[in-house]
Amino acid sequence: MDRAQSPANVLVVVNDNSPISRRIAEYYERRRAIPSSNVCHIRASTHEDIDRVAYDREIAAPVGAFLKETRLVQSIFYIVTTSGVPLRIEGTSGLGGDAASVDSELAALYFDLARGKPHPVDGSLENPFNGKNQSVFRHPEFPMYPVTRLTAYDEQGVKQIVDLSLRAVNRGRFIIDLSSPDDHAGNNWLRTAAVLLPKDRVIVDDSPQVLYDQTDVIGYASWGSNDQHRHRRFVGFHWLPGAIMTEYVSTNGRTFERPPEDWNISNWQSRELWFHGSPQTLTADYILEGVTGASGHGYEPYLAMTPRADLLLPAYYRGRNLAESYYLAIPRLSWQNIVVGDPLCSLGKPRPYTFFSRKGAKHAKSSFAILARSA
Asked: How far is residue 252 from each of residues 17, 28, 162, 275, 284, measured CA to CA in Å?
C-alpha cells in the first residue's frame, strides 16, 4: 500500500531557534537521505506550549509558504517535526475547544492550502484517511499531511528512534492488554486487533492483571495508566527494532521533559505526586525503553478520538509505514493527537516468530493466548 513512501515525500520542519532541532533535522536528513530541498526552516518559540497567534505566525504560515514556494504541496505526503518545535497550542478545553497539538494542526495544513483559507479551529476536523485501510495514500484524494515528530527526552533518544527505524523487521509479538473482560468499546477495539493479527504473533490479556516484562515486542496496545491495576511507570518490555505502542491515556504526550528518576504514575487525587500537571503515563517513557514509534495526546482527546488499535496494529503488521498506520487509526485532525517516529519506518513483509531453547535449538512458537482471568 505504501507505493509512495520515499524520502522525496517527506518534509522536515526545523526550528532554527533551537540547536537540538537543527541537530536532529541534520541527523535525520543524512540517515534517511531526505533531499535538502525538503527541509523547511522556521523561527519559532522553543517552549513546548504556545498560543494560537504564535502557532499561526511562527509555524503554520512559514510551513505553508515554503510548500507553495517550492511547489511541494502535492508531492509532500508526510511532515516531520523535531524536538525544539513547539508541542501544544494553548486554548479552550472540551469537544468544542481550540486547544490542540501542533502536529495535529499541521496535519490539516493541506486542507488550508487547497481552500486558500484556514480551517475552523473550534473542535476537530474529520480525518479523511481514517479507516481507509485498503487505499493508497495520495493527494488530492486525501487532503491532509500525516505529521510525525522526532522527539524524546534527549538528543540521543531521538537518534535512537531514527536508527531503530532503519533496522525494523517484521518479527516479534504484539502485546494487547485489556483493562477487564467487559464489553467496553476500548476493550472491544483491542480484542478486534488481536483477531486481525496472526494467532502465532499475539498475546492478549483480558484479566485484571497488567502485562509487564514481555520479550520480543513489536507492537503494544493498552489502557496505560487508565488501567487501575497499573502501578509501574515502565512496563519493562524488551522492544524489537520497529516496535510501536499506543494506549488510551489523555495526557501521555503532555511533555517531553524528563521527570525525576523516582517519579511514578499515581492518581488524580494526589496532586503532589503529579508531573507536568498529570499523574498519567508518559509517551516519552516508552521511547526511553526502546520503542521506535509511539502515540500520545497533548490534552484530553476523549476515547473516541484516540488511535484505534484494531486499525493501527494490523496495518503496521501488513507493511504500512508508521505514519500511515497511525493516521489510519486516528479519527480526527486539528485535535490532541501526537505521533512520534520516522514516518517511513516499515516492518516490510511478515516473518514467523521464533524462539531459542536453552540448548539453542530453533523452534516456531505459537504465542496467541487469552490469559486466564484472575479471581
From this structure: 26, 25, 21, 11, 8
How many other C-beta atoms are found inside a 10 Å radius of the C-beta of residue 368? 16
Q: Which residues pair with 203 in a beta bridge?
A: 175
pLDDT score at 355: 42
CA distance linking residue 194 with residue 183, whole number of Å: 15
* Lowest mean per-residue pLDDT among 267-276, 332-341, 348-357: 348-357
What pLDDT, on a 0 to 100 scale, did the predictor assign at position 181? 81
What is the CA 229 to chain-centroid distance, rounded?
Answer: 24
Domains of the chain: 7-148 (no CATH), 153-371 (3.40.50)
Non-local CB neighbours of 44 within 8 Å, separated by 6+ positions: 15, 17, 50, 54, 58, 59, 85, 86
> Residue 375 above 60 pLDDT?
no
Query: Tell me, what's the pLDDT at 352?
Result: 57
Alpha-carbon distance 337 to 109, whole Å?
15
Average pLDDT of the residues in 258-263 = 98
C-alpha grid cell for residue 363? 523452534
